Amino acid sequence: MKNTRRLLAALLALTMIFSLLSAAGAAELQGEIDLFHRFPNEPESTSFERIVEAYMEKNPGVTVNIEYAANDPYKEKIKIVLGSGQNVPDVMFTWCGEFTNRFVRENKVLNLSENMTAEDFDAYLPGQLAPFSYQDSIWALPFLVNGKVWYYNKTMLADAGITAPPATHEEFLAQLQQVQDASGKRAIAYGNLAAWASTHYTGTLFQKIVDPAVTAVDYAGVDATWTDPGYVDALNIYVDMLQYANEGVNGIDHEGARNNWLLGEHAFMFMETMEIDNVDRDMLDGFEYDMFPWPAIEGGKGDQNMITGAPEGFMVSASTDQKEISVDFLKYMTGIDAGVIQRDTVRWLNAAKGVITPDDPDQMLYASYLAVENASGMANWLDTEVHSIVAEAILTGGQELTGGSITPEQLMAQIQEAAERAKPEIAAGE
């Protein structure tokens, strides 16, 4: 009996010790980190604030400071601060592909494969981790599942006698003309004031028309030529589609074009799945919409079931002096708890397993999720997939092509020249 009592006492003592150690472990995170993201607008900004507040409530010894900038200013600032090494945020937004990879080569990014476990990574959809893999390691975690699809005004299509979305590009062109004839309005809402918008069109067309073995070499840059005739074919399709878009494409931004689409001025708009909340929040009573992927292009050498898009994510600075907190916060802000906050605030979905299910009451949100999940793969955003010198040529030339001041052949000549200028930097790992 005494031995039993002694055993129970020992077990109780051990339990108390483990409880104290657990409490100490839970409270041991002490410090301050800086978060930098690219979402200054509401309700996106509020979503980040709520996620940070929830994390700090769980970790009262930690302070997370938030800084943000809009899309293009963000790209410029993050390159400057990482290049200078001054005032570098601990956790920062990133795009997959070359945008992240160049910073990896410059030793600016923390290797998450060395700072997380297999169990940690298993909490995410594997297909959404792969785009952040480079040199056999993972460098960022996905916080947003996102792809590019065509949204359409169901009423305008019905009024034009169209009963189903197009299955091929030729059918799509016929529907564009059919809608214009019936409504007297340009069929496509399109704003390219910020030049990234045109790269979503051209990048999609490059993926569908050019042999993937060719784009792989050209996008990587070391042996790039950009001479495949499929590029010009793709750009000619783009130029041909502009006749169905609103006038003054380069003079209107994406949000303005979306507002015009919501007002019924146009039937179609090429948008990201993450824009579903903007649509539902701003649409008028009685507005009905749906979405479909870019239809197959006959004769195209690419995978016709892929869509353009990629998960967006966050990475940790290699120079952070708060590595443990930064990684812990990164896992939280991309995990399921933060995912629930995110979906309830802005109706965005992160890549945490279980963040949405087939029986979810928000069926339109689930449909946007399926648009990504049902695709055979994702073609990364063109301007983040290639070297920055090439990206600049594509962005600038894309606006010129859209405005009619250059031809597809001239744009490809500019890209080829930029690719040659980029090769020394790529070879040097810059």
What would your notes on this structure say?
This protein has 2 domains: 30-146 and 310-355, Periplasmic binding protein-like II (D-Maltodextrin-Binding Protein, domain 2, 3-Layer(aba) Sandwich); 148-308 and 379-427, 3-Layer(aba) Sandwich (D-Maltodextrin-Binding Protein, domain 2). The chain is built from 19 helices and 13 strands. The protein has helices at 2-27, 44-58, 71-84, 98-105, 118-121, 126-129, 154-159, 169-183, 196-209, 212-220, 229-241, 254-262, 276-282, 323-333, 336-346, 363-373, 382-385, 388-403, 408-427; strands at 31-37, 62-68, 91-95, 133-134, 137-138, 141-144, 148-153, 188-189, 268-272, 289-292, 307-308, 312-316, 378-379. The strands form 4 sheets. A 5-stranded mixed beta sheet has the order 2-1-3-12-6, sandwiched between helices. A 4-stranded mixed beta sheet has the order 8-9-7-10. The longest helix is centred in the N-terminal third of the chain and has 26 residues, at 2-27.
Descriptive labels:
430 residues; alpha/beta; D-Maltodextrin-Binding Protein, domain 2; 2 domains; 13 strands
Shape: globular
- Our count of domains comes out at 2
Q: CATH H-level name of the largest domain... which superfamily? A: Periplasmic binding protein-like II
SSE class: alpha/beta
- Taking Cα atoms only, what radius of gyration do you get, to the nearest Å? 24 Å
Q: Estimate the helix proportion, in percent.
A: 40-55%
CATH fold-type name of the largest domain: D-Maltodextrin-Binding Protein, domain 2
Question: How many helices does DSSP assign?
Answer: 19
Query: Which CATH top level class of the largest domain fits?
Result: Alpha Beta
Distance between the termini: 73 Å
Reported for the largest beta sheet, the result is: 5 strands, mixed
